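Re: weekly structure request thread

Next one in the queue (134 aa):
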Amino acid sequence: MIAGWLHDVASITDYRLYELHHVHGAQMAYDILKGYGYDARKIPLVQECIKKHRGSVNLEKNSLEELCVADADAISHFDSIPDLLYLAYVQKGMGIEEGKEFVKEKLKRSFQKLSPESQKYYRSKFQKVMEVLN
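Done, posted below.
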């Protein structure tokens, strides 16, 4: 749960860290958790979840927790279409078609990142979102 809360801390704190936010976020999580006296044996487990949550960085998930954080991150994109459109059109200044393709590709990567079990469960939602964007 803590890794879920902290997985995007670097990109939220400083968007310039976005490209490597999984790496920076893991270090930030260490500092935060250590500062709060969190169990030192568990901090590396949280860090691994954060490091491996990104769809664009395909790292093997070695624990159920790593898989859950990565799946939850990807699944959240299917419920955040307005946020993704805002990112494309307002923050990145893309045109209509370019922005639409940006969002579609992000969602495709998110779906492909899901575990096979989650893909089965979310296939219908993914397909419906893609129909709307087409």
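The chain has a mean pLDDT of 93. The first helix runs from residue 2 to 6.
Next request, please.
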